[in-house]
């Protein structure tokens, strides 16, 4: 059996305090990273929506290119 005086020396209290502080810092870092990941995810969804909307707005330009090809074929006699 370990005598009580061995525990009263305080060595393991220092280790416990350091470990507790490290765990608190790690928990804060993990929480921060998770918050940033959620923010990035929301921004990515917004970017995808905006890209899809701009694709829809510029789709008529593809039709214009096709119309020009047909006009050149008609005008060129092909």
Helix proportion of residues, in percent?
Answer: over 70%
- Return residue spans where pLDDT drops below 50 for at least 5 consecutive residues: none
Order of helices and strands: HH
**Biggest pleated-sheet summary:** none
Roughly how many Å apart are the termini? Answer: 103 Å
With helices defined by DSSP (H or I, 4 residues minimum), what is the helix count? 2
- Strand fraction equals under 5%
Query: What structural class should be given to the helix and strand makeup?
Result: mainly alpha
Task: Find the count of extended strands (DSSP E, 2+ residues).
Answer: 0
Mean pLDDT: 86
What's the Cα radius of gyration? 33 Å
Overall geometric form: rod-shaped
């Amino acid at each position: 059996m370990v005598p009580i005086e061995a525990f009263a020396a305080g060595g393991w209290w220092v280790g416990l305090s350091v470990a507790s502080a490290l765990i608190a810092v790690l928990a804060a870092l993990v929480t921060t990273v998770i918050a940033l990941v959620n923010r990035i995810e929301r921004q990515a969804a917004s970017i995808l929506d905006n890209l899809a909307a701009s694709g829809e707005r510029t789709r008529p330009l593809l039709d214009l290119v096709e119309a020009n090809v047909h006009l050149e074929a008609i005008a060129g006699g092909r």
